[in-house]
Specification:
- The chain folds into two domains: 49-348, no CATH class; 377-507, no CATH class.
- The protein contains 21 helices and four strands.
- The chain has helices spanning 4-46, 55-63, 67-76, 82-91, 98-124, 129-140, 154-171, 176-185, 192-206, 211-234, 249-252, 255-268, 270-282, 286-307, 332-336, 339-344, 351-392, 413-424, 438-448, 452-457, 482-491, and strands at residues 400-406, 430-431, 467-475, 498-507.
- It has a four-stranded mixed beta sheet.
- This is Glycosyltransferase RgtA/B/C/D-like domain-containing protein.
Length: 508
């Protein structure tokens, strides 16, 4: 017969095994969906064979061996160092295609940035290696990075990593002679300055608590602030970009902008906020509450740079074909993902609740990430379909093309120009994009873009066209589900995606 002690031990051991099995099963399911999500993202990202949004300008300039075009562009935008980042890719265009190499470099620095986010979590949270790993995954799966389908965001990927690693070295008081100037260079992306400052302030609260260290940190903050504004004055915006990203103080003090920023991140990381509320309700922990509030302040502090220029993200844009507002979340994401270790640390004594919370958060992130990729895949499919249909038309004369769209948003003129260039291999047409007064618009365009480099940049013919063609473009790609989208995307077949009809040529 079993003793009472043996029976109690056996029941306890069975309970332990049951919990371990549940944890392992949940972890396996979570890891499986994470792997699928990462594969979908990488396949979509690396097989698009094109560019999107502002990235088409650089891609076009490089295909024409005209780096002067993007040098002028970035110079006018006050981004004095950025063109040299793309020069490094341009040099190797003969060995590897520019589009593929730019994407590989972008992903490389994004992975390095995820590693730096792990090191940030290690500074403030006593969590195991598994939680730190999932923090990196959560960062990597932010829908913001799906915008990297456009190679214009190569600069953002690189400078974000430089900001994170240089700030870490500054906090560790290492390689300061190298890291301080590199940090200032990373402010090509303006929001990197608030990110660096907020990370230094965070360290003042938890690590650098001695007066001496805090004084040193204040000194670095002053250097960062002075360097940021000094560089803006030394390399001001001019030309076409004279008023680019102009700061408006009234926006900085408008409460609505901060509410919209919080709304975006609460919706994006809804399970994290839900678990945080439950954890604090059932296991009150002042330190955890304090940390969560600090993370929220960090999110808002990193949103100030965007709020000041009235550029705020919209959650509704995540799955859209042409949504670009998610770029306003790049630096805030660093703080937002710290919610994961912040809420899992106090749950260490509740293993089942902890693993359940972790898996729900990651599964939600997987769903959002795939939804975001689906939107960009549809955008690529639309491009492929429209290019294919234009190729099948009788060759269009050198006219302005007034495009009216159905089932898809209106693209920028240079995005349409990129599509026509890929179809014909030359820039003879001038896409307008649903103009109400083509004659007036053509005159205005050639008045503003009065240099050869401007016209090359925006896919404009050397001479103003003397005729207008009305073109109807329609597609149902926006209504497709994920399976149909992904299948069509991988098939490479551009047929039956877009319908194009030409209504005639009208002389001006």
């Amino acid at each position: 017969m079993y003793s009472l002690k043996a029976l109690v031990f056996d029941k306890f051991w069975e309970k332990i095994k049951e919990i371990n099995f549940q944890i392992r099963l949940a972890a396996f399911c979570g890891n499986f969906f994470i792997a699928i999500t990462l594969i979908v993202g990488m396949v979509g990202f690396l097989t698009m064979a094109t560019d999107l949004w502002d990235g088409v300008i650089i891609s076009h300039a490089i295909s024409l061996d005209r780096p002067d075009v993007y040098h002028e562009w970035f110079s006018e935008a006050g981004l004095f160092f950025t063109p040299y980042i793309y020069d490094a890719i341009y040099i190797f265009r003969g060995a590897v295609s520019y589009d593929l190499l730019a994407k590989l470099v972008t992903v490389f620095f994004l992975i390095l940035s995820a590693g730096e986010v792990v090191r940030i979590s290690e500074r403030y949270f006593n969590v195991d290696r598994e939680v730190r790993f999932y923090t990196a995954i959560l960062f990597y799966m932010s829908p913001a990075w799906v915008l990297y389908y456009s190679n214009i965001y190569l600069m953002h990927s690189l400078t974000l990593f430089v900001t994170l690693i240089c700030t870490r070295y500054i906090l560790d008081r290492k390689a300061l002679v190298l890291c301080v100037p590199l940090l200032l260079l990373s402010f090509q992306q303006s929001s990197n300055a608030p990110l660096s400052i907020s990370l230094i302030l965070l360290d003042c609260m938890f690590n650098h608590v001695k007066i001496k260290d805090r004084i040193i940190n204040i000194g670095f903050i002053l250097i960062i602030a002075f360097g940021f504004f000094a560089l803006r004055n030394l390399f001001p915006t001019h030309g076409l970009y004279e008023s680019y990203n102009k700061i408006h103080l009234e926006h900085m003090f408008a409460v609505g902008g901060y509410f919209r920023m919080v709304e975006y991140f609460v919706l994006l990381y809804f399970p994290s906020f839900l678990v945080a509320g439950l954890a604090l309700y059932f296991r009150p922990d002042k330190k955890a509450l304090y940390m969560i509030l600090i993370i929220l302040v960090g999110v808002l502090l990193n949103g100030v740079a965007y709020i000041a220029v009235n550029k705020i993200p919209s959650f509704s844009e995540i799955g859209l074909m042409h949504g670009e507002s998610l770029r306003f979340t790049f630096t805030s994401t660093v703080f937002a993902v710290l919610l994961l270790p912040a809420i899992l640390q106090p749950l260490v004594e509740a293993p089942r609740l902890r693993i359940l919370a972790l898996m729900v958060i990651l599964m939600y992130a997987c769903a959002i990430n795939i939804y975001a990729h689906e939107g960009k895949m549809k955008e690529v499919l639309f491009q492929r379909g429209m290019i294919n249909e234009i190729k099948n038309l009788s060759y269009l004369p050198s006219c302005a093309i007034n495009i009216k769209s159905a089932g898809v948003g209106v693209l920028t003129g240079y995005e349409y120009g990129h599509i026509f260039y890929r179809a014909y291999g030359e820039t003879n047409q001038l896409p307008l994009g649903d103009s109400q007064n083509p004659v007036s618009d053509i005159k205005e365009l050639y008045k503003i873009f009065n240099k050869d480099s401007y016209r090359v940049k925006y896919f404009m013919p050397a001479e103003a066209p003397g005729c207008v063609i009305d073109m109807n473009v329609s597609t149902s790609v926006g209504e497709w589900g994920f399976v149909e989208t992904f299948t069509k995307y991988l098939s490479g077949s551009p047929g039956s995606i877009v319908k194009v009809s030409v209504l005639g040529v009208n002389p001006l």
